[in-house]
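Re-run requested by the PI after the first attempt was lost when the workstation crashed. Everything re-entered from the original request form. Ligand of interest: iron/sulfur cluster.
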Amino acid sequence: MAELKPADRMKIKRHPMPNQDEHVRRGNFDEVALGYAPETAREEAERCIQCKDPKCVQGCPVGVLIPQFIKALREGDMVQAVEWMKVKNNLPAICGRVCPQESQCEGNCILGKKGDPVAIGRLERYVGDFELAHRTCPLAKAPKTGKRIAVVGSGPAGLTCAVDLGREGHDVTIFESLHGPGGVLIYGIPEFRLPKGVVHNEVNYAVECLGIQIKTDHVIGRSYTLDELLAEYDAVFLGTGAGLPSFMRIPGINLNGVMSANEFLTRVNLMKAYQFPDYDTPVKLGRKVAVIGAGNVAMDAARCSLRLRALAAQKNAGEQGEVHIVYRRSKDEVPARHEEVEHAEEEGVIFDFLTSPIEILGDEKHHVRSLRCVRMELGEPDASGRRKPLERKGSEFDMDIDTVIMALGTNPNPIVFVDADGLERTKYGTAVAEHETGRTKKRRVWAGGDVVTGAATVISAMGAGKRAAADIHAFVKGESSWD
Amino acid sequence: MYAIVKKEVLTDVTKLMVIEAPHVARSARAGQFVIVRIDEYGERIPLTIADYDRAAGTITIIFQELGKSTKQLGKLTPGDTLASFAGPLGHPTEIGNYGTVVCMGGGVGIAPIYPITRALKEAGNRVISIIGARTKNLLFWEDRMMSVSDSLIVCTDDGSHGRACLVTEPLKELLEDKNNRVAKVWAIGPASMMKFVTLTTKPHAVPTIVSLNTIMIDGTGMCGGCRVLLEEGARFVCVDGPEFDGHKVDWDSLLSRLSFYKDEEREAVEYYEHKCRIDGETMKGRK
Ligand SMILES: Cc1cc2nc3c(=O)[nH]c(=O)nc-3n(C[C@H](O)[C@H](O)[C@H](O)COP(=O)(O)OP(=O)(O)OC[C@H]3O[C@@H](n4cnc5c(N)ncnc54)[C@H](O)[C@@H]3O)c2cc1C
Ligand SMILES: Cc1cc2nc3c(=O)[nH]c(=O)nc-3n(C[C@H](O)[C@H](O)[C@H](O)COP(=O)(O)OP(=O)(O)OC[C@H]3O[C@@H](n4cnc5c(N)ncnc54)[C@H](O)[C@@H]3O)c2cc1C
Ligand code: SF4
Ligand code: SF4
Ligand code: FES
């Protein structure tokens, strides 16, 4: 294609993502977004006007070299595109799929001012998938340094930190309490949004190329304490995430049929309950499911519920039932990625906005029978800048519901802090760590990701892992001191 | 992979296994538990650490064959391996010198009460133990319990061995006997047994520690599936327990939560036994 003028580029329409048909995908766990074909990716890449001062990059928490990788992509030089990408982001196949692009890179893209932003996330995924298939950017390992580093937790923060340190030639061991590595990427985010093969592929590649050891079934704070790790390793990075679920403080939360989104998603994703009884772990859903909350976790829980209902209906020729999202604010405040909300709507999730549960009612057998709610209205903006939801007096009503899934946010899991004297924490239970370096208040201990920020994003966890790796590297080489 | 190094058949449905798991053995203590997953398809099931050997790096588990997972586990033999073995989890038992204490084990609960009884005896307590089961064939370790107790009472529901009664009956007599001054009671067994033990001790205001066996998934505080209602609110058995003050537990809610997956548990057993029939000989695997 001849070189286009910016005005011509801006005339090209944003290319939609080909998706699995909503009627079909509702009944399976296969990936929804199918990925751009090569020519679509090339054409979408043509839309970028290669800003001198690219705003998109400022919107990305790790500063991916967006204009550079897009230029290489449209010139057909995929090897170069991968290289530009990997300067800042080790896991583009993952971030391209799950980043909240509309509030990050794409939210800042100049084209978004008048029309649609460049589909940066979709192009990133395209580059990431190319790399997964072709492995053009081998992970090279520097000569051995003899330094031993322990990474606790194998989510995006821990993995990124481990890979960067492994490349520097350090001897890295990851300790993970679950039986498989990946953190939320494997136990939380469902297959239809992030195929587990993508995650396993990245993990295996890193392990094979860099000799990183992964010790699963190791619960730090119990199998080993943090102080015991410090006795054996030169540095310890904590990437233990924020996995402790919270329940609403309303009557009825202990009834049968009430579960946390974490329980539900772990059963479904990590334990593969959707393939019960081939896999041993079951998951029990009623006919009418209410998911409380409207973040990514809530969307995932709702869309998994929908699929399980459809599979059950196929198996027993029964009814599909209903899946509701119950959210106390309005649609404008929904914190989930836009794409997930759209997909959820297309698939048939029912949204009950401005609705807040006040009690879960049970039957004589302790099973959920209905959900008592009140209607809300939005008042003045609160500290977070969002309009505060207020109860409308006398608006109580009961929803016919038999399963309640709480997706209300999570806090750091406290086990890792057992016998970790000197590791300071905030009143929310998060570890105190410097943003730039990841250093905690405890000598030779770094932390990053959700354990520091509280529930956030995959890319911000990766960014924290990367910054900490750079600082750990400098520290163990003696280039910087602790005090 | 974690190797099974030893297997003992304690009763028709109760098996003991010694598993090689140095990372658990190094810090394991009485009262804690592990999460076991047999193979790639397996669920994560909690089992109490019945004993440990730090030098050998092994953990002893004792389990009763109830459903799919424990039945499959029971078919394995030394040389076989387990896919996951995570722990030690939960808080260890608090041991002190309280005076006269009663240790109660029901069914497979005899296994986890044994190391606690031993530790209480070593700490200088006068230990009265009560063990019970539905029938004689389900009892084990009478001799071991005897060796760490000042006196031992054995009961079976059907009277096939020892006294024909529930374990709560001798407990009640002990509590009512003014000479005894029971300071504390430990009870481990089926939830309904623990419930009735706490109902028996409550009028006498004797502190009663129970070890709750809720349904678990991760065992590390991540899912909340193991939650139990106490007087002060919901707690996670895997991180806050497994031992609790039995007088504060909402037993009815616990019992109903334990039965939530009954249909699926039955389906899993039927499916497994069907597969095994097709597989023929091994009865171990599934695929
Ligand atoms: C359902 C769901 C959907 C989400 N969707 C998105 C999305 O679309 N886009 C997005 O950007 N973000 C999303 N997020 C948020 C994102 O996944 C997290 O912010 C991110 O995974 C945090 O990474 P992390 O490495 O800090 O922690 P985690 O991914 O939580 O990993 C922590 C790991 O540490 C392990 N661990 C914990 N304690 C111990 C211990 N004591 N010893 C050993 N190991 C331990 C855990 O088992 C876990 O594997 C979602 C989160 C959830 C739950
Ligand atoms: C902290 C903890 C420690 C435990 N320690 C031991 C132990 O040392 N030895 C041992 O044999 N078991 C122990 N259990 C119970 C054990 O985990 C369950 O028996 C096991 O998960 C059953 O799995 P299954 O697939 O074989 O049976 P399932 O199919 O899950 O269950 C079969 C039958 O058992 C009942 N059941 C299910 N779960 C439990 C449970 N947790 N307690 C009682 N009944 C249940 C079901 O209602 C059903 O009727 C412990 C549980 C906990 C929480
Ligand atoms: S990492 Fe995420 S935010 Fe950054 S460019 Fe890629 S998709 Fe956008
Ligand atoms: S802001 Fe948009 S148009 Fe400009 S460089 Fe970034 S992606 Fe391209
Ligand atoms: S088993 Fe998941 S929180 Fe206890």
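Saved to the shared folder this time. Residues A 60, 62, 64, 66, 89, 95-96, 99, 101, 104-105, 120-121, 124, 459 surround iron/sulfur cluster (ligand 3) (CB under 6 Å).
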